[in-house]
Hints:
Blueprint: E1 4-7, E2 10-13, E3 18-24, E4 33-39, E5 46-51, E6 58-60, E7 68-73, E8 78-83, E9 92-99, E10 112-113, E11 117-122
Amino acid sequence: QGQLVESGGGLVQAGGSLRLSCAASDRTFSSSAMGWFRQAPGKEREFVATIRWNGIRTYYTDSVKGRFTISRDNAKNTVYLQMNGLKPEDTAIYYCAASPTGATVNVADYQYWGQGTQVTVSS
């Protein structure tokens, strides 16, 4: 079974940028929709963005539209989340996940998860 490994998190000031990466160890993920989710302390895990297996369609939660961009490079088995204009409310652990059944906003539809990477935005 393949693994997903996130990287790129860190501490940034409000208005700054970070790019998260999610490397898949298994080429089968190239046929899966990939999503980014986040979980802040004391809150449930929430949808951030998702991208279809071929990269043609993307979907975002309203709070990140215009600031975050999800992309993928199937040749490198890697998914990215470019985050610009970061706000303190973006602070959370960010997880990437794979959904063999399609690009959805539902946590339950994603079967494979990474370990998460911490993003902290200071005001």
